[in-house]
Amino acid sequence: MSQPTPLVQPLLLQFQQLFFLSKMVGVLPQNLDKFRYKNVLEKSRNGMLYMLGVLSIYVVLYNLLIYSFGEEDRTLKASQSTLTFVIGLFLTYIGLIMMATDQLTALFNQGQLGELYERIRVVDERLYREECLLDNSCIAKRIRIMLIMTFIFEISILVATYINLVDYTQWLSLLWIVSAVPTFVNTLDKIWFAVSLYALKERFEAINATLEDLVMEHEKYKAWLTGDDATTATVGNRTADSQQSSPPPQYDSNLEYLYKELGGIDTGSLRNSGGKNHNKVAPIAHSMNSFGETIPTPHKPQRMNTNPLINMAHESELNDAAKVEIKLNNLCQVHDEICEIGKAMNGLWSYPILSLMAYGFLIFTAQLYFLYCATQSQSIPSLFRSAKNPFITVIVLVYTSGKCIYLIYLSWKTSLASKRTGISLHKCGVVADDNLLYEIVNHLSLKLLNHSVDFSACGFFTLDMETLYGVSGGITSYLIILIQFNLAAQQAKDAIQSFNSFNDTAGFVGAATEMDNNSSTLYDMITTTMMTPTY
Protein backbone atom coordinates (compact mmCIF):
# COMPACT_ATOMS: atom_id res chain seq x y z
CA MET A 1 0.00 0.00 0.00
CA SER A 2 1.58 3.24 -1.17
CA GLN A 3 1.77 6.22 1.15
CA PRO A 4 -0.13 9.39 0.19
CA THR A 5 1.86 12.09 -1.53
CA PRO A 6 2.58 14.96 0.88
CA LEU A 7 1.17 18.36 0.03
CA VAL A 8 4.45 20.13 0.74
CA GLN A 9 8.09 19.12 0.87
CA PRO A 10 9.49 18.73 4.39
CA LEU A 11 11.81 21.42 5.65
CA LEU A 12 14.47 18.84 6.48
CA LEU A 13 14.91 18.20 2.76
CA GLN A 14 16.98 21.39 2.67
CA PHE A 15 19.27 20.17 5.49
CA GLN A 16 20.92 17.31 3.58
CA GLN A 17 24.47 18.67 3.48
CA LEU A 18 24.34 20.07 6.99
CA PHE A 19 23.03 16.82 8.47
CA PHE A 20 25.71 14.62 6.86
CA LEU A 21 28.48 16.97 8.03
CA SER A 22 26.99 17.20 11.54
CA LYS A 23 26.65 13.44 11.71
CA MET A 24 30.28 12.94 10.71
CA VAL A 25 31.77 15.27 13.35
CA GLY A 26 29.38 14.12 16.09
CA VAL A 27 26.99 17.05 16.43
CA LEU A 28 23.75 15.03 16.00
CA PRO A 29 23.05 11.40 17.02
CA GLN A 30 19.95 10.79 14.86
CA ASN A 31 19.56 7.83 12.50
CA LEU A 32 21.35 8.36 9.20
CA ASP A 33 19.29 5.95 7.07
CA LYS A 34 15.97 7.36 8.25
CA PHE A 35 17.05 10.85 7.31
CA ARG A 36 18.47 9.76 3.95
CA TYR A 37 15.33 7.96 2.76
CA LYS A 38 12.49 9.60 4.70
CA ASN A 39 13.87 13.04 5.67
CA VAL A 40 12.99 12.55 9.33
CA LEU A 41 15.03 12.75 12.54
CA GLU A 42 14.66 9.63 14.66
CA LYS A 43 16.56 8.33 17.66
CA SER A 44 19.50 6.04 17.06
CA ARG A 45 21.35 4.00 19.67
CA ASN A 46 24.36 3.53 17.41
CA GLY A 47 24.40 7.25 16.72
CA MET A 48 24.39 7.93 20.46
CA LEU A 49 27.35 5.61 21.05
CA TYR A 50 29.22 7.13 18.11
CA MET A 51 28.60 10.63 19.44
CA LEU A 52 29.84 9.74 22.94
CA GLY A 53 32.94 8.12 21.44
CA VAL A 54 33.72 11.18 19.36
CA LEU A 55 33.25 13.44 22.39
CA SER A 56 35.65 11.30 24.43
CA ILE A 57 38.27 11.46 21.69
CA TYR A 58 37.92 15.24 21.51
CA VAL A 59 38.41 15.57 25.27
CA VAL A 60 41.55 13.37 25.27
CA LEU A 61 43.12 15.17 22.32
CA TYR A 62 42.29 18.59 23.76
CA ASN A 63 43.99 17.79 27.07
CA LEU A 64 46.97 16.39 25.19
CA LEU A 65 47.13 19.66 23.27
CA ILE A 66 47.14 21.66 26.49
CA TYR A 67 49.91 19.48 27.95
CA SER A 68 52.04 19.69 24.80
CA PHE A 69 51.82 23.47 24.49
CA GLY A 70 51.76 24.13 28.23
CA GLU A 71 55.45 24.91 28.66
CA GLU A 72 54.70 28.60 28.37
CA ASP A 73 51.82 28.26 30.85
CA ARG A 74 54.13 26.76 33.48
CA THR A 75 56.30 29.87 33.48
CA LEU A 76 53.37 32.27 33.12
CA LYS A 77 52.55 32.47 36.83
CA ALA A 78 56.14 33.23 37.77
CA SER A 79 56.71 35.81 35.07
CA GLN A 80 53.31 37.58 35.03
CA SER A 81 50.58 38.61 37.42
CA THR A 82 48.25 36.13 39.06
CA LEU A 83 45.29 37.73 37.22
CA THR A 84 46.66 36.85 33.79
CA PHE A 85 47.41 33.31 34.91
CA VAL A 86 43.91 32.72 36.34
CA ILE A 87 42.18 34.18 33.26
CA GLY A 88 44.24 32.01 30.95
CA LEU A 89 43.65 28.87 33.03
CA PHE A 90 39.87 29.36 33.07
CA LEU A 91 39.49 30.33 29.42
CA THR A 92 41.64 27.43 28.28
CA TYR A 93 38.78 25.01 28.99
CA ILE A 94 35.79 27.21 28.18
CA GLY A 95 35.85 26.13 24.53
CA LEU A 96 35.79 22.48 25.55
CA ILE A 97 32.91 23.18 27.96
CA MET A 98 30.95 24.90 25.21
CA MET A 99 31.44 21.98 22.81
CA ALA A 100 30.44 19.41 25.44
CA THR A 101 27.30 21.42 26.22
CA ASP A 102 26.27 21.40 22.56
CA GLN A 103 26.82 17.66 22.11
CA LEU A 104 25.23 16.54 25.37
CA THR A 105 22.19 18.77 24.81
CA ALA A 106 21.74 17.32 21.32
CA LEU A 107 22.05 13.85 22.82
CA PHE A 108 19.30 14.41 25.39
CA ASN A 109 16.96 16.22 22.96
CA GLN A 110 17.31 13.95 19.92
CA GLY A 111 13.70 12.73 20.14
CA GLN A 112 12.20 16.20 20.66
CA LEU A 113 14.15 17.62 17.72
CA GLY A 114 12.47 15.22 15.30
CA GLU A 115 9.03 16.11 16.68
CA LEU A 116 9.83 19.79 16.23
CA TYR A 117 10.46 19.48 12.49
CA GLU A 118 7.38 17.28 12.11
CA ARG A 119 5.30 20.07 13.62
CA ILE A 120 6.82 22.49 11.13
CA ARG A 121 5.78 20.17 8.28
CA VAL A 122 2.18 20.14 9.55
CA VAL A 123 2.23 23.93 9.74
CA ASP A 124 3.43 24.11 6.14
CA GLU A 125 0.49 21.97 5.02
CA ARG A 126 -1.98 24.22 6.83
CA LEU A 127 -0.40 27.30 5.28
CA TYR A 128 -0.64 25.66 1.87
CA ARG A 129 -4.37 25.14 2.34
CA GLU A 130 -4.73 28.83 3.24
CA GLU A 131 -2.82 29.79 0.06
CA CYS A 132 0.20 31.13 1.96
CA LEU A 133 3.21 30.84 -0.32
CA LEU A 134 6.54 29.59 1.07
CA ASP A 135 9.86 29.16 -0.69
CA ASN A 136 12.21 26.77 1.11
CA SER A 137 14.85 26.85 -1.61
CA CYS A 138 16.45 29.88 0.05
CA ILE A 139 17.02 27.72 3.15
CA ALA A 140 19.46 25.45 1.31
CA LYS A 141 21.31 28.45 -0.15
CA ARG A 142 21.59 30.02 3.28
CA ILE A 143 23.00 26.78 4.72
CA ARG A 144 25.63 26.54 1.99
CA ILE A 145 26.69 30.15 2.54
CA MET A 146 27.04 29.58 6.28
CA LEU A 147 29.08 26.42 5.78
CA ILE A 148 31.40 28.15 3.33
CA MET A 149 31.95 31.08 5.71
CA THR A 150 32.59 28.67 8.59
CA PHE A 151 35.30 26.82 6.65
CA ILE A 152 36.87 30.10 5.54
CA PHE A 153 37.12 31.47 9.08
CA GLU A 154 38.26 28.23 10.68
CA ILE A 155 40.93 27.50 8.08
CA SER A 156 42.17 31.11 8.08
CA ILE A 157 42.60 31.21 11.85
CA LEU A 158 44.14 27.74 12.03
CA VAL A 159 46.62 28.14 9.17
CA ALA A 160 47.66 31.70 10.06
CA THR A 161 48.30 30.78 13.69
CA TYR A 162 50.08 27.55 12.82
CA ILE A 163 52.46 29.18 10.34
CA ASN A 164 53.24 32.36 12.26
CA LEU A 165 53.07 31.40 15.93
CA VAL A 166 53.65 27.64 16.22
CA ASP A 167 56.92 25.76 15.92
CA TYR A 168 55.81 23.43 13.15
CA THR A 169 59.21 21.70 12.99
CA GLN A 170 58.05 19.40 15.82
CA TRP A 171 55.54 16.65 15.12
CA LEU A 172 53.51 17.49 18.23
CA SER A 173 52.64 20.77 16.58
CA LEU A 174 50.06 18.87 14.52
CA LEU A 175 47.92 18.74 17.65
CA TRP A 176 47.22 22.42 17.08
CA ILE A 177 44.48 21.28 14.66
CA VAL A 178 42.49 20.14 17.71
CA SER A 179 42.23 23.75 18.88
CA ALA A 180 39.75 24.43 16.04
CA VAL A 181 37.44 21.52 16.88
CA PRO A 182 35.36 23.17 19.68
CA THR A 183 34.49 26.26 17.67
CA PHE A 184 33.75 24.23 14.53
CA VAL A 185 31.38 21.88 16.36
CA ASN A 186 29.68 24.83 18.05
CA THR A 187 29.20 26.63 14.74
CA LEU A 188 27.55 23.61 13.11
CA ASP A 189 25.14 23.31 16.03
CA LYS A 190 24.26 27.02 15.85
CA ILE A 191 23.66 26.79 12.09
CA TRP A 192 20.86 24.33 12.86
CA PHE A 193 19.30 26.80 15.28
CA ALA A 194 19.79 29.83 13.03
CA VAL A 195 18.32 28.21 9.92
CA SER A 196 15.35 26.77 11.84
CA LEU A 197 14.74 30.18 13.37
CA TYR A 198 14.88 31.78 9.94
CA ALA A 199 12.30 29.25 8.71
CA LEU A 200 9.93 30.29 11.50
CA LYS A 201 10.42 33.94 10.59
CA GLU A 202 9.54 33.15 6.98
CA ARG A 203 6.28 31.50 8.10
CA PHE A 204 5.33 34.49 10.22
CA GLU A 205 6.01 36.76 7.26
CA ALA A 206 3.92 34.51 4.99
CA ILE A 207 0.94 34.97 7.31
CA ASN A 208 1.52 38.72 7.42
CA ALA A 209 1.78 38.86 3.62
CA THR A 210 -1.52 36.98 3.27
CA LEU A 211 -3.28 39.48 5.54
CA GLU A 212 -1.72 42.38 3.63
CA ASP A 213 -2.99 40.87 0.38
CA LEU A 214 -6.51 40.81 1.79
CA VAL A 215 -6.21 44.50 2.60
CA MET A 216 -4.84 45.33 -0.84
CA GLU A 217 -7.58 43.39 -2.63
CA HIS A 218 -10.27 45.18 -0.64
CA GLU A 219 -8.72 48.56 -1.39
CA LYS A 220 -8.79 47.73 -5.10
CA TYR A 221 -12.39 46.61 -4.74
CA LYS A 222 -13.37 49.89 -3.08
CA ALA A 223 -11.50 51.82 -5.76
CA TRP A 224 -13.42 49.90 -8.43
CA LEU A 225 -16.74 50.74 -6.76
CA THR A 226 -15.90 54.44 -6.76
CA GLY A 227 -14.62 54.31 -10.32
CA ASP A 228 -11.02 55.15 -9.42
CA ASP A 229 -9.46 51.84 -10.39
CA ALA A 230 -5.77 52.30 -11.15
CA THR A 231 -5.89 49.62 -13.79
CA THR A 232 -8.64 51.40 -15.68
CA ALA A 233 -6.68 54.63 -15.46
CA THR A 234 -3.59 52.94 -16.86
CA VAL A 235 -5.54 51.48 -19.73
CA GLY A 236 -7.12 54.87 -20.39
CA ASN A 237 -3.69 56.48 -20.61
CA ARG A 238 -2.56 53.92 -23.17
CA THR A 239 -5.65 54.62 -25.35
CA ALA A 240 -5.81 58.39 -24.90
CA ASP A 241 -5.40 59.06 -28.61
CA SER A 242 -8.27 56.78 -29.60
CA GLN A 243 -10.55 58.37 -26.98
CA GLN A 244 -9.80 61.86 -28.28
CA SER A 245 -10.61 60.88 -31.86
CA SER A 246 -13.90 59.10 -31.10
CA PRO A 247 -16.72 59.87 -28.65
CA PRO A 248 -17.02 57.69 -25.53
CA PRO A 249 -19.30 54.66 -25.82
CA GLN A 250 -22.84 54.86 -24.51
CA TYR A 251 -24.13 52.19 -22.12
CA ASP A 252 -27.69 51.07 -21.69
CA SER A 253 -29.08 52.56 -18.49
CA ASN A 254 -31.22 49.50 -17.71
CA LEU A 255 -28.82 46.65 -16.99
CA GLU A 256 -30.20 45.49 -13.65
CA TYR A 257 -31.15 42.12 -15.09
CA LEU A 258 -27.52 41.49 -16.12
CA TYR A 259 -26.22 42.20 -12.63
CA LYS A 260 -28.80 39.92 -11.06
CA GLU A 261 -28.21 37.15 -13.60
CA LEU A 262 -24.39 37.20 -13.50
CA GLY A 263 -23.60 37.89 -9.88
CA GLY A 264 -26.59 38.89 -7.87
CA ILE A 265 -25.18 42.40 -7.38
CA ASP A 266 -27.51 44.92 -5.79
CA THR A 267 -27.46 47.83 -8.20
CA GLY A 268 -29.13 50.06 -5.67
CA SER A 269 -26.09 49.83 -3.43
CA LEU A 270 -23.89 50.77 -6.35
CA ARG A 271 -25.99 53.83 -7.09
CA ASN A 272 -25.93 54.90 -3.47
CA SER A 273 -22.16 54.53 -3.26
CA GLY A 274 -21.68 57.84 -5.01
CA GLY A 275 -19.29 56.48 -7.60
CA LYS A 276 -19.14 56.96 -11.34
CA ASN A 277 -19.76 54.51 -14.16
CA HIS A 278 -22.47 52.58 -12.31
CA ASN A 279 -23.52 50.51 -15.30
CA LYS A 280 -20.54 48.16 -15.36
CA VAL A 281 -21.06 44.55 -16.30
CA ALA A 282 -19.25 42.64 -13.57
CA PRO A 283 -18.46 38.97 -14.25
CA ILE A 284 -18.04 37.51 -10.78
CA ALA A 285 -16.12 34.29 -10.20
CA HIS A 286 -18.03 31.22 -9.02
CA SER A 287 -21.41 32.58 -10.19
CA MET A 288 -24.23 30.26 -11.35
CA ASN A 289 -25.82 30.02 -14.77
CA SER A 290 -29.51 29.46 -15.44
CA PHE A 291 -29.09 25.68 -15.19
CA GLY A 292 -27.63 25.88 -11.69
CA GLU A 293 -24.14 24.95 -12.93
CA THR A 294 -21.01 26.66 -11.68
CA ILE A 295 -19.33 28.99 -14.12
CA PRO A 296 -15.55 28.33 -13.96
CA THR A 297 -13.29 31.15 -12.93
CA PRO A 298 -11.59 32.67 -15.96
CA HIS A 299 -7.81 32.57 -16.00
CA LYS A 300 -5.95 35.81 -15.49
CA PRO A 301 -4.74 37.09 -18.88
CA GLN A 302 -1.04 37.34 -19.40
CA ARG A 303 -1.32 40.69 -21.18
CA MET A 304 -3.30 43.70 -20.14
CA ASN A 305 -6.42 44.19 -22.18
CA THR A 306 -6.24 47.58 -23.85
CA ASN A 307 -9.91 47.69 -24.75
CA PRO A 308 -11.55 50.34 -22.51
CA LEU A 309 -14.99 48.88 -23.18
CA ILE A 310 -14.32 45.83 -20.97
CA ASN A 311 -14.31 46.56 -17.21
CA MET A 312 -13.52 43.62 -14.90
CA ALA A 313 -14.71 43.66 -11.29
CA HIS A 314 -12.34 43.16 -8.37
CA GLU A 315 -13.21 40.62 -5.73
CA SER A 316 -12.64 40.98 -1.98
CA GLU A 317 -12.87 38.24 0.61
CA LEU A 318 -13.44 40.85 3.31
CA ASN A 319 -16.97 41.41 1.97
CA ASP A 320 -18.00 37.95 3.16
CA ALA A 321 -17.70 38.11 6.95
CA ALA A 322 -18.50 34.43 7.49
CA LYS A 323 -15.90 33.27 4.98
CA VAL A 324 -13.21 35.65 6.12
CA GLU A 325 -13.82 34.69 9.76
CA ILE A 326 -12.89 31.09 8.96
CA LYS A 327 -9.77 32.20 7.10
CA LEU A 328 -8.62 34.61 9.81
CA ASN A 329 -9.31 32.07 12.52
CA ASN A 330 -7.23 29.44 10.69
CA LEU A 331 -4.36 31.88 10.22
CA CYS A 332 -4.40 32.78 13.91
CA GLN A 333 -4.35 29.12 14.85
CA VAL A 334 -1.35 28.54 12.61
CA HIS A 335 0.28 31.62 14.12
CA ASP A 336 -0.25 30.18 17.60
CA GLU A 337 1.28 26.86 16.53
CA ILE A 338 4.35 28.60 15.07
CA CYS A 339 4.79 30.52 18.33
CA GLU A 340 4.63 27.27 20.28
CA ILE A 341 7.22 25.77 17.95
CA GLY A 342 9.44 28.79 18.58
CA LYS A 343 9.14 28.34 22.34
CA ALA A 344 9.97 24.64 22.02
CA MET A 345 12.96 25.48 19.83
CA ASN A 346 14.18 28.01 22.37
CA GLY A 347 13.93 25.34 25.05
CA LEU A 348 15.98 22.85 23.05
CA TRP A 349 18.82 25.31 22.43
CA SER A 350 18.63 27.34 25.65
CA TYR A 351 21.78 25.89 27.28
CA PRO A 352 23.88 25.93 24.07
CA ILE A 353 22.86 29.55 23.47
CA LEU A 354 23.79 30.48 27.04
CA SER A 355 27.19 28.79 26.69
CA LEU A 356 27.79 30.52 23.35
CA MET A 357 26.94 33.96 24.73
CA ALA A 358 29.17 33.39 27.76
CA TYR A 359 31.95 32.13 25.50
CA GLY A 360 31.60 35.09 23.16
CA PHE A 361 31.64 37.63 25.99
CA LEU A 362 34.67 36.10 27.72
CA ILE A 363 36.69 35.34 24.60
CA PHE A 364 36.10 38.78 23.08
CA THR A 365 37.21 40.47 26.30
CA ALA A 366 40.16 38.12 26.87
CA GLN A 367 41.39 38.34 23.29
CA LEU A 368 41.58 42.11 23.49
CA TYR A 369 43.21 41.93 26.92
CA PHE A 370 45.84 39.46 25.74
CA LEU A 371 46.46 41.63 22.69
CA TYR A 372 47.27 44.47 25.07
CA CYS A 373 49.56 42.15 27.05
CA ALA A 374 51.34 41.14 23.84
CA THR A 375 51.96 44.78 22.93
CA GLN A 376 53.58 45.23 26.35
CA SER A 377 55.89 42.25 25.73
CA GLN A 378 54.14 40.20 28.41
CA SER A 379 53.62 36.44 28.30
CA ILE A 380 50.14 35.12 27.44
CA PRO A 381 48.56 31.61 27.62
CA SER A 382 49.63 29.22 24.90
CA LEU A 383 46.13 28.66 23.43
CA PHE A 384 45.70 32.43 23.05
CA ARG A 385 48.88 32.99 21.14
CA SER A 386 46.78 34.28 18.22
CA ALA A 387 46.56 37.53 20.22
CA LYS A 388 50.24 38.14 19.40
CA ASN A 389 49.20 38.97 15.82
CA PRO A 390 46.69 41.83 15.40
CA PHE A 391 45.47 40.51 12.02
CA ILE A 392 44.66 37.06 13.42
CA THR A 393 43.02 38.73 16.42
CA VAL A 394 40.67 40.65 14.14
CA ILE A 395 39.64 37.43 12.35
CA VAL A 396 38.99 35.67 15.67
CA LEU A 397 36.91 38.56 16.98
CA VAL A 398 34.84 38.83 13.79
CA TYR A 399 34.19 35.10 13.74
CA THR A 400 33.22 34.88 17.41
CA SER A 401 31.13 38.02 17.57
CA GLY A 402 29.50 37.29 14.20
CA LYS A 403 27.85 34.13 15.52
CA CYS A 404 26.51 35.86 18.62
CA ILE A 405 25.30 38.98 16.81
CA TYR A 406 23.58 37.02 14.04
CA LEU A 407 21.65 34.82 16.47
CA ILE A 408 20.58 37.85 18.51
CA TYR A 409 19.53 39.76 15.40
CA LEU A 410 17.62 36.82 13.93
CA SER A 411 15.81 36.15 17.21
CA TRP A 412 14.84 39.81 17.43
CA LYS A 413 13.52 39.89 13.85
CA THR A 414 11.52 36.68 14.37
CA SER A 415 9.91 38.12 17.49
CA LEU A 416 9.01 41.31 15.61
CA ALA A 417 7.51 39.30 12.74
CA SER A 418 5.28 37.40 15.18
CA LYS A 419 4.04 40.63 16.77
CA ARG A 420 3.42 42.34 13.41
CA THR A 421 0.62 39.85 12.67
CA GLY A 422 -1.67 41.77 15.02
CA ILE A 423 -1.03 44.98 13.10
CA SER A 424 -1.80 43.31 9.78
CA LEU A 425 -4.96 41.82 11.27
CA HIS A 426 -6.21 45.23 12.43
CA LYS A 427 -5.62 46.62 8.96
CA CYS A 428 -8.22 44.16 7.69
CA GLY A 429 -10.79 45.54 10.12
CA VAL A 430 -9.95 49.16 9.32
CA VAL A 431 -10.12 48.81 5.55
CA ALA A 432 -13.33 46.75 5.62
CA ASP A 433 -15.10 49.19 7.99
CA ASP A 434 -17.67 46.59 8.99
CA ASN A 435 -18.99 46.11 12.54
CA LEU A 436 -19.13 42.33 12.31
CA LEU A 437 -15.58 42.16 10.98
CA TYR A 438 -14.45 44.53 13.74
CA GLU A 439 -15.78 42.10 16.33
CA ILE A 440 -13.96 39.22 14.64
CA VAL A 441 -10.70 41.16 14.54
CA ASN A 442 -10.95 42.23 18.18
CA HIS A 443 -11.66 38.66 19.28
CA LEU A 444 -8.67 37.32 17.35
CA SER A 445 -6.46 40.15 18.58
CA LEU A 446 -6.99 39.01 22.16
CA LYS A 447 -5.70 35.61 21.13
CA LEU A 448 -2.66 37.11 19.40
CA LEU A 449 -1.71 38.92 22.61
CA ASN A 450 -0.98 35.53 24.14
CA HIS A 451 0.87 34.28 21.05
CA SER A 452 3.99 36.42 21.46
CA VAL A 453 7.31 34.60 21.33
CA ASP A 454 10.58 35.88 22.77
CA PHE A 455 13.88 34.03 22.69
CA SER A 456 16.14 33.98 25.73
CA ALA A 457 19.20 32.21 27.11
CA CYS A 458 17.71 30.06 29.89
CA GLY A 459 15.71 33.09 31.02
CA PHE A 460 18.79 35.09 32.03
CA PHE A 461 18.42 37.64 29.23
CA THR A 462 16.36 38.12 26.08
CA LEU A 463 17.99 37.85 22.68
CA ASP A 464 17.28 41.33 21.31
CA MET A 465 19.17 44.44 20.34
CA GLU A 466 19.00 45.86 23.86
CA THR A 467 20.94 42.86 25.13
CA LEU A 468 23.51 43.34 22.38
CA TYR A 469 23.98 46.94 23.50
CA GLY A 470 24.40 45.85 27.11
CA VAL A 471 26.96 43.18 26.21
CA SER A 472 28.97 45.71 24.20
CA GLY A 473 29.07 48.06 27.17
CA GLY A 474 30.04 45.22 29.51
CA ILE A 475 32.95 44.18 27.30
CA THR A 476 34.27 47.73 27.24
CA SER A 477 33.95 48.14 31.02
CA TYR A 478 35.62 44.84 31.90
CA LEU A 479 38.41 45.43 29.40
CA ILE A 480 39.23 48.77 31.03
CA ILE A 481 39.17 47.14 34.49
CA LEU A 482 41.50 44.34 33.39
CA ILE A 483 43.96 46.80 31.86
CA GLN A 484 43.94 48.88 35.05
CA PHE A 485 44.62 45.79 37.18
CA ASN A 486 47.41 44.82 34.81
CA LEU A 487 48.97 48.27 35.06
CA ALA A 488 48.75 48.17 38.85
CA ALA A 489 50.31 44.71 38.94
CA GLN A 490 53.15 45.77 36.65
CA GLN A 491 53.78 48.90 38.69
CA ALA A 492 53.88 46.85 41.90
CA LYS A 493 56.26 44.36 40.28
CA ASP A 494 58.53 47.19 39.07
CA ALA A 495 58.50 48.70 42.55
CA ILE A 496 59.46 45.37 44.13
CA GLN A 497 62.24 44.89 41.63
CA SER A 498 63.52 48.42 42.28
CA PHE A 499 63.41 47.83 46.03
CA ASN A 500 65.30 44.56 45.71
CA SER A 501 67.86 46.21 43.48
CA PHE A 502 68.27 49.02 46.01
CA ASN A 503 68.73 46.49 48.82
CA ASP A 504 71.37 44.66 46.84
CA THR A 505 73.21 47.89 46.15
CA ALA A 506 72.94 48.99 49.76
CA GLY A 507 74.21 45.64 50.97
CA PHE A 508 77.21 45.85 48.64
CA VAL A 509 78.04 49.36 49.82
CA GLY A 510 77.64 48.31 53.49
CA ALA A 511 79.96 45.38 53.02
CA ALA A 512 82.59 47.59 51.42
CA THR A 513 82.31 50.11 54.24
CA GLU A 514 82.63 47.43 56.90
CA MET A 515 85.70 46.04 55.17
CA ASP A 516 87.26 49.50 55.12
CA ASN A 517 86.52 49.95 58.80
CA ASN A 518 88.16 46.64 59.62
CA SER A 519 91.26 47.63 57.67
CA SER A 520 91.49 50.93 59.59
CA THR A 521 91.20 49.15 62.94
CA LEU A 522 93.96 46.71 62.05
CA TYR A 523 96.21 49.59 60.93
CA ASP A 524 95.66 51.48 64.17
CA MET A 525 96.42 48.39 66.23
CA ILE A 526 99.70 47.72 64.39
CA THR A 527 100.76 51.35 64.62
CA THR A 528 100.02 51.49 68.33
CA THR A 529 102.02 48.32 68.97
CA MET A 530 105.05 49.57 67.10
CA MET A 531 105.03 52.97 68.78
CA THR A 532 104.87 51.58 72.30
CA PRO A 533 108.38 51.78 74.03
CA THR A 534 109.87 48.61 75.49
CA TYR A 535 111.82 48.46 78.79
UniProtKB/TrEMBL annotation:
Q: What is its main location?
A: membrane
Query: TM spans, by residue?
Result: 49-70, 82-100, 145-165, 171-193, 351-371, 391-410
Kindly state which keywords UniProt assigns to this record, in alphabetical order. Cell membrane, Membrane, Receptor, Transducer, Transmembrane, Transmembrane helix
Record GO biological process: chemosensory behavior; male courtship behavior; sensory perception of taste; signal transduction
Q: Where in the cell is it found?
A: Cell membrane
The protein's superkingdom reads Eukaryota
Give the protein's function.
Gustatory receptor which mediates acceptance or avoidance behavior, depending on its substrates.
Q: What is this protein called?
A: Gustatory receptor
**Gene Ontology CC, one term:** neuronal cell body
State the membrane topology.
Multi-pass membrane protein
A single Pfam family, by name? 7tm_7
The family assignment reads: Belongs to the insect chemoreceptor superfamily. Gustatory receptor (GR) family.
